[in-house]
Write a structure and sequence with these properties.
About 85% of the residues lie in helices and about 0% in strands. With about 70 residues, the chain is mainly α. The chain has one domain (about 1-70).
């Protein structure tokens, strides 16, 4: 009986705390237009840079693999 009471009390406490914390999760301030555009542009530049690095790594791997088979490496 005591175990059931403890589990129900913990469940109720978790429910109350979750309901209290839920509005804080949705409270977000809006950013100015310039900041939002700068963040988007930085993200685009990051994707472009990461893509260039991956392409360079694949190219190096391909040349090394070919060079190993042809006796260059």
């Amino acid at each position: 009986m005591l175990k059931l009471f403890k589990s129900r009390a913990l469940a109720l406490m978790a429910l109350v705390l979750g309901m209290l914390a839920a509005p804080a999760a949705f409270a977000q301030a809006t950013l100015p237009t310039g900041v939002d555009a700068a963040i988007t542009e930085a993200g685009d530049m990051l994707v472009l840079g990461a893509t260039a690095v991956i392409i360079a790594m694949v190219g190096f791997w391909a040349v090394r693999k070919l060079g190993g088979k042809m006796g260059w490496w």
